[in-house]
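User: Please fill in residues for this 360-position structure.
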């Protein structure tokens, strides 16, 4: 027997989910659902599916692979390559007991139990369920596998109510000028002792004035630079959807272009360094100097915030940072000096010093 479940959508409208489940010996052997704008349409679909599934041999014709096999097929048929994080998450799910179950055996209790078994923070657990949800979204319409999207939705509601998943906290840490002065002084000493060491002074300043992430800094090439237009193409820019193939044309601030000009001419990477090494060096320097809770990525936040403090509009800032939406940039605009054209780095001596000392 099927069930019609009315659900209120975010826009205030009502959707009617028709849920059909077949049990044998008290165990669900088949489950599927569809959502409609009208209750009558949901009833018609539900009765039609019940009639089809009641036919002899109907259930035996439904392919019912394990979740692990579905993940493998998803990986094979997806056109864009997954990013490192999504690949790691899906591989972890494949090793879990949940992945050994067949699609028809996975309901919301199994999904909740899987989420509870993850020994991670609520934000990370939410990411796991989001990536798993992508598998559920395509499994039935693409391949006819009985993975129940309604079960995933129900599990997400339960996990949220129990506080087991949450959104990542928005980080607002920015370096102070005193902290930056300590770092720049530290790295000046390092460069004198070890001339072949990473040019961390330039990398720190470029991260601020270009608003680029460390991985992006160490990936851009001279071919990505369009000097007359003051633009830089950032390959595979990180975004909430797919990173691989997401090439974004960004605008360079004058300071960022000047810092690029401090690098030797090359046909390859402009900053030919290992991104993890850059991050590790920065973290160690902060620990040595007693600078608490400052990450290299916070330099990007500082650079974006600075542009708003200069009175730049959202489209102007987005052209530099590569953000796609106002929502993504909203957290950078709650600033004391927004619109007052306050420049934290006006006549910044370390920028002038680096540009003066390093010549091509």
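Assistant: Residues filled in for all 360 positions:
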């Amino acid at each position: 027997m099927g069930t019609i479940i009315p659900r209120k959508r975010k826009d205030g409208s009502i959707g009617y989910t028709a849920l059909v489940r077949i049990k044998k010996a008290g165990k669900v052997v088949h489950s599927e659902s569809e959502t409609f704008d009208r209750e009558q349409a949901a009833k018609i679909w539900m009765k039609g599916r019940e009639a089809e599934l009641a036919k002899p041999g109907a259930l035996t014709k439904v392919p019912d692979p394990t979740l692990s096999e579905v993940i493998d097929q998803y990986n094979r048929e997806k056109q864009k390559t997954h990013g490192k994080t999504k690949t790691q998450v899906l591989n972890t799910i494949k090793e879990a007991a949940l992945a050994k179950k067949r699609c028809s055996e996975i309901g919301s209790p199994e999904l909740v139990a899987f989420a509870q078994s993850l020994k991670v923070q609520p934000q990370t657990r939410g990411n796991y369920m989001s990536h798993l949800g992508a598998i559920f979204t395509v499994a039935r319409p693409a391949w006819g596998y009985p993975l129940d999207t309604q079960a995933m939705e129900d599990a997400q509601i339960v996990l949220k109510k129990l506080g087991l998943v949450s959104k990542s906290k928005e980080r607002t840490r920015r370096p102070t000028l005193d902290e930056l002065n300590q770092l720049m002084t530290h790295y000046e000493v390092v460069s004198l002792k070890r001339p072949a060491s990473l040019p961390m002074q330039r990398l720190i300043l470029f991260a601020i004035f270009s608003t680029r992430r460390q991985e992006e800094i160490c990936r851009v090439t001279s071919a990505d630079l369009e000097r007359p237009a003051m633009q830089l193409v950032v390959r595979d820019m990180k975004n909430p959807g797919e990173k691989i193939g997401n090439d974004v044309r960004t605008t360079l601030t004058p300071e960022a272009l000047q810092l690029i000009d401090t690098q030797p001419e090359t046909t390859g990477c402009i900053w030919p360094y290992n991104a993890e090494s850059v991050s590790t060096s920065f973290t160690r320097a902060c620990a040595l100097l007693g600078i608490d809770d400052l990450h290299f990525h916070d330099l990007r936040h500082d650079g974006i915030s600075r542009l708003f403090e200069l009175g730049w509009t959202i489209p102007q800032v987005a052209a530099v940072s590569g953000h796609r939406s106002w929502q993504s940039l909203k957290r950078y605009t709650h600033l004391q000096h927004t619109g007052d054209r306050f420049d934290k780095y006006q006549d910044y001596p370390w920028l002038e010093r680096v540009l003066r000392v390093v010549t091509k």
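For context: The chain has a mean pLDDT of 87.
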